[in-house]
Amino acid sequence: MSDERSMMGRAFLLLGSFTSNRLRLSQSELSRRTGLPLPTVHRLCRQLEDHGALERVADGRYEIGVRLWALGALAPRAHGLRQVAQPFLEDLYEATHENVQLVVREGLEALYLERRSARGAVTVVGRAGGRLPLHASSGGLVLLAFGGRELLDAVLAAGLERFTPATITTEHRLRSTLDDIRRTGWVVCREHLNLGTLAVAAPVSRSTGEVVAAVSVVVPTDKSPASLIPAVRAAARGISRGIA
User: Fold this and answer.
1) 3-class SS at 181?
2) In sequence order, which residues have a C-beta less than 8 Å from that of residue 221 and are 6 or more positions away?
3) Per-residue confidence (pLDDT) for residue 119, from 0 to 100
4) What angle is formed at CA 9 by the lines to CA 6 and CA 12, rounded to 5 degrees?
5) pLDDT per residue over 157-175, tens digit each?
6) Strand 99-106 vs strand 109-116: parallel, antiparallel, or unpaired?
7) CA-based nearest residue to 25, from 71, 59, 66, 52
8) Three-class secondary structure of residue 234 per DSSP
9) Torsion of CA 177, 114, 225, 205, to 10 degrees
10) Between 244 and 156, whose confidence is greater?
């Protein structure tokens, strides 16, 4: 059993090496990123490829296989949310024609389950299935605000990485921002993660009050958040009413 756990842990370590910025990796790159010996990486890649968890592309590198995406889509937390959220995200997209996102928390990161983007929408970091630090994104800040003391302590211990001059990088400013989110039920982030962008986010919660996701919209900084705040909050409330 210990050998099985060790092998499973190595497999997840290898799969965790892929990011939204590095979608394709060679065996040598996987070995460097995981610290695993190259023969071990070679064996794991072959096994994961046989089961559809990895796919080998023409240049010999690997990418995440579609079977993992299919399995992930069955996760109740993601599947139920996405189903309920679809019409509300579509309405918000039609109202803004910008980047509309549904975000959940996974560990110390924000995970984007869904995104709608217009062709001419402002460019942003992140994509469906991608991850971002909680402290640097509007949806992540909402999730952090309602995530409890232990989560905040863990985020602070991990460090507040700076992405732009406006990124929150001090504990005092972070705590103040989270207090404001809990008081108002929304957040506006101006160039916290991407220069030239303004983001608005609001929480999605169950009837128990537990916040399980966030809805956000990202627009150019020359747009006013005044009309976006009620639209984002309305979408978040609509999704909240639809989940158990």
Assistant:
1) helix
2) 190, 191, 196, 197, 198
3) 65
4) 150
5) 999 999 999 999 999 999 9
6) antiparallel
7) 59
8) helix
9) -50
10) 156
SS3 readout for 2-50: HHHHHHHHHHHHHHCCCCCCCCCECHHHHHHHHCCCHHHHHHHHHHHHH
Q: How far is it, in rounded angstroms, from Cα 164 to Cα 229?
A: 23
The structure's pTM equals 0.72
Angle at alpha carbon of residue 52, lines to 111 and 9, rounded to 5°: 60
38-50 and 2-15 helices, crossing angle to 10°: 90
Beta strands in the chain (DSSP E): 54-56, 62-64, 99-106, 109-116, 131-133, 187-190, 197-205, 211-220
Report helix, strand or coil for 140.
helix
* Amino acid present at 36: L
| Rounded Cα gap, residues 181 and 79, in angstroms | 27
DSSP, res 137: S
pLDDT of res. 125: 58
Tell me what the mean pLDDT of segment 59-64 comes to: 91
